[in-house]
């Protein structure tokens, strides 16, 4: 019954790992933007690793994040075999030639594909929506955990009031 | 006295009622007051409702029979003094009636299965959801539970909203469904603030829509509402991604190094982190984290980092950085 909590727990575990790995491979000092990118990267990798299933978005996210990091051994460690599996799957997706749809739907699906990692590789709209919903669950877990962490005052160790009142 | 309190409370509601001080208690009033059980405390209606039936009936009869008497006794105040008395019984009933009506309406809606499966009420945007969503704590609807479990995606959040209509019946009327209302119910202990409600409404609609998509022939792109469903999905994904961006910026601004003390922070925030909708019921599970072997947690580092960290001040989010990822 605690599926969402389990999602969050898995994300937390993975995030701790990715943060440590990223920190060991990145040279200091960094400015705010680079730190932000590193945190975002580690967080994205964490949700993708937490999913680590048969979803296109998780594999696409790992692959996309792997390209951003310069450290190849670490990327390989995180990706394991996920990246290869995704490449194989891409080739098997056939292109649907005649796609007649209403303009609004067409534009929106294109935009949605650009939002969801790996969405542009999906042709079946039904599957695209399924992928999107799964991705939303993990995105939400990511936001919840990060919001909790951000609310903690690291200097004093006190939790700010805005989080308590959520 | 309780009856006086009752009069005072009702006078505000009934309307054209004179003030307390203008009430002249006749002998019959005082008799009733004296016979009321002394343990009746509290406000207006509770006192009345707790009165024994006989006394309540006395009140009723008293108002009917003695109206003329009161007129003779108390002159001009007579008709108005009895208004609170006579009206006292009815509002108490009307309160109960209100609640019963509400429950019955909900019950009929639940049983009657509003046609037009609510997922097809695709006209609402994210803002409009707040107006249309009604949330009440209720038991879980087993019917909706089943349809939720039928979803193919393995990772579904458990705190689904319970839509009152069935999706199975809507196959015939799917194209014409534009329900203006979405009745949703929150499970016990769930957050019912507007944000969660709107998101839950959105998720529930999307889930139901997904079910429909599965049932239909693969010509589903012709359906009127698909664009609006996609709109909602797009908005949700975009907002979540923006939040992630902002939160990572905030974390980066506060921490001078990348690997901040995530483990120690979360160890101290177990109960509240898992609060969400499940009131920290699994927080004790967080105490033992079996790390995957990638990295051994160094708990001793924590103190050093605490001294090294200093606040960078409030994080200022630049809008261009927010748009960067979009």
UniProtKB/TrEMBL annotation, chain A:
Q: Does the keyword Ribonucleoprotein apply?
A: no
Q: Which keywords label this protein?
A: Transcription, Transcription regulation
What does the record list as GO biological process?
regulation of DNA-templated transcription
According to the entry, every stretch annotated as the IBH1-like N-terminal domain falls at 5-64
Per the record, the coiled-coil ranges are none
Question: What name is this protein filed under?
Answer: IBH1-like N-terminal domain-containing protein
Can you name the source organism? Arabidopsis suecica
Automatic annotation (TrEMBL), chain B:
Name of the protein in its database record: Myc-type basic helix-loop-helix (BHLH) domain
- Where is the segment annotated Disordered? 115-176
Which ranges are annotated Polar residues under compositional bias? 115-128
Q: Which GO terms describe its cellular component?
A: nucleus
**An example Gene Ontology molecular-function term:** DNA-binding transcription factor activity
| SMART domains linked to this entry | HLH
In the record, what lineage is assigned to the organism producing the protein?
A: Eukaryota, Viridiplantae, Streptophyta, Embryophyta, Tracheophyta
PANTHER family documented for this protein: STEROL REGULATORY ELEMENT-BINDING PROTEIN (PTHR12565), TRANSCRIPTION FACTOR BHLH48-RELATED (PTHR12565:SF112)
Q: What are the UniProt keywords, alphabetically?
A: Nucleus, Transcription, Transcription regulation
Q: Which PROSITE patterns match?
A: BHLH (PS50888)
Per UniProt, residues of the BHLH domain are 190-240
Question: Main site of residence?
Answer: nucleus
Q: Does the keyword Transcription apply?
A: yes
Q: Is this entry keyworded Transcription?
A: yes
Q: According to its UniProt record, where is this protein located?
A: Nucleus
Classification via InterPro entries? bHLH_dom, bHLH_ZIP_TF
């Amino acid at each position: 019954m605690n599926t969402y909590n389990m999602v969050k727990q898995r994300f937390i575990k993975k995030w701790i790992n990715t943060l440590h790995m990223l920190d060991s491979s990145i040279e200091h000092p960094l400015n705010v933007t680079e730190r932000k990118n590193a945190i975002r990267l580690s967080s994205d990798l964490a949700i993708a690793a937490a999913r680590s299933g048969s979803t296109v978005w998780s594999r696409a996210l790992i692959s996309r994040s792997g390209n951003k990091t310069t450290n190849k051994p670490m990327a390989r460690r995180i990706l394991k075999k996920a990246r290869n599996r995704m490449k194989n799957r891409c080739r098997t997706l056939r292109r649907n030639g005649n796609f007649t749809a209403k303009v609004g739907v067409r534009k929106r699906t294109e935009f949605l594909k650009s939002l969801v990692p790996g969405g542009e590789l999906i042709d079946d709209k039904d599957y695209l929506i399924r992928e999107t919903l799964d991705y939303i669950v993990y995105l939400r877990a990511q936001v919840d955990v990060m919001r909790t962490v951000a609310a903690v005052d690291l200097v004093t160790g006190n939790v700010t009031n805005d989080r308590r009142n959520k | 006295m309780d009856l006086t309190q009752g009069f005072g409370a009702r006078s505000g509601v009934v309307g054209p009622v004179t003030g307390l001080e203008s009430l002249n208690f006749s002998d019959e009033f005082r008799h009733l007051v004296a016979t009321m059980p002394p343990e009746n405390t509290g406000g207006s209606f509770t006192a009345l409702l707790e009165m024994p039936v006989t006394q309540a009936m006395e009140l009723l009869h008293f108002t009917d029979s003695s109206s003329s008497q009161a007129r003779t006794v108390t002159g001009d105040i007579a008709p108005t003094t009895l208004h609170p008395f006579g009206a006292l019984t009815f509002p108490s009933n009307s309160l109960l009636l209100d609640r019963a009506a509400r429950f019955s309406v909900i019950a009929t809606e639940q049983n009657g299965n509003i046609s037009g499966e609510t997922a097809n009420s695709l006209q609402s945007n994210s803002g409009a959801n707040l107006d249309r969503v009604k949330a009440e704590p209720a038991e879980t609807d087993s019917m909706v539970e089943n349809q939720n479990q039928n979803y193919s995606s393995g990772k579904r959040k458990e705190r689904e909203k319970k839509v009152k209509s069935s999706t199975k019946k809507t196959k015939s009327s799917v194209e014409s469904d534009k329900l203006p209302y979405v009745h949703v119910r929150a499970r016990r202990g769930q957050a019912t603030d507007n944000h969660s409600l709107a998101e839950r409404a959105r998720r529930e609609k999307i889930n139901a829509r997904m079910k429909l998509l599965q049932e239909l022939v693969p010509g589903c792109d012709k359906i009127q509402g698909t664009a609006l469903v996609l709109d909602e999905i797009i908005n949700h994904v975009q907002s979540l991604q923006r939040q992630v961006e902002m939160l990572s910026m905030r974390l980066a601004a506060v921490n001078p190094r990348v690997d901040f003390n995530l483990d120690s922070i979360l160890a101290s925030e177990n109960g509240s982190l898992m609060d969400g909708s499940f009131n920290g019921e699994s927080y004790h599970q967080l105490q033992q984290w079996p790390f995957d072997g990638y990295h051994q947690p160094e708990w001793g580092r924590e103190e050093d980092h605490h001294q090294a960290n200093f606040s960078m001040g409030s994080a200022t989010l630049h809008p261009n950085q927010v748009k960067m990822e979009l």
